[in-house]
């Protein structure tokens, strides 16, 4: 299987009908093109590496821009990953197109490797921003959380659950817009059918962002698990300072997300929360920027206090709106760790 057999199946762009002048000159000089070069990609520096995959920047002649290339070694990757989870990831992402999702461009398979070509996010990850600025002020947090929320809601509406929403997987483009990436643990076809919401028993993700039901090893609603992970993110962004100044509206939202599954807000209720309805403020690029008080925040505090005064008095008040019977959805056994040994996948036999 020396040819790029996955190209026709997964390519998101038309094939080039003519060879470039550079290709012809390479042939005349006897220089053998690499697989990526033959598809119009010139590989650059490495920007990420794991136990069996590497991510590099490349210049794309076809797309006339820089792209990210994820290179998966068939010799180092687990068999189940190559046969089931990698094809699932590609199948999921090629059907998703949203301004806050990293766009899939093409997949190429050779005898030794699989290459996944994606949109390149120039400004790194949300984790990089937190490390650089020490903390993210509430105005930027709201903007980025809103964008992340729209990306995850878009996926859920199409029956796709991400299952590994974390700061490392939230990337940023040159305009500091959020781009959710890495659908390695994602699963499609998770829409309720005939009023039945499927559960997941694939306990995957990252420990720091995993919901209590995943850590307990009980069947769970993956959509609500994604909501929990997003709640951890917004908490991380606004509470990093020693003395965080967080509005009551923000505190109220976090307190209704980071709760047991049965009383956790679903994604529609999060989208309609008072904190996200506050006036948009331009994103800051440095913690040295001067913050101006916004009068609407004071009103939001009072409104949020009234709304949240009975948050934990009754489970029904903040229960999910799914209201459906549950069926059991089992996945095959699979275990994988990333370079920091903080990702996991565990299944019951």
TrEMBL record:
Biased composition (Basic and acidic residues): 20-30
Taxonomy, superkingdom: Eukaryota
Cofactor annotation: Mg(2+)
InterPro entries attached to this UniProt entry: Kinase-like_dom_sf, Prot_kinase_dom, Protein_kinase_ATP_BS, Ser/Thr_kinase_AS
Signal peptide range: none
Keyword hit for Ubl conjugation: yes
Protein residues bound to ATP: 70
Any GO MF annotation of the entry: magnesium ion binding
Keyword list, A-Z: ATP-binding, Developmental protein, Differentiation, Kinase, Magnesium, Metal-binding, Nucleotide-binding, Phosphoprotein, Serine/threonine-protein kinase, Spermatogenesis, Transferase, Ubl conjugation
Domain Protein kinase, residue spans: 41-349
Region annotated Disordered, chain positions: 1-31
GO annotation, biological process: cell differentiation; intracellular signal transduction; microtubule cytoskeleton organization; spermatogenesis
Cellular component terms per the entry's GO annotation: cytoplasm
Keyword rRNA-binding applies: no
PANTHER family recorded: MAP/MICROTUBULE AFFINITY-REGULATING KINASE, TESTIS-SPECIFIC SERINE_THREONINE-PROTEIN KINASE 1
Family: Belongs to the protein kinase superfamily.
Name of this protein: Testis-specific serine/threonine-protein kinase 4
Species, as recorded: Melipona quadrifasciata
Lineage: Eukaryota, Metazoa, Ecdysozoa, Arthropoda, Hexapoda
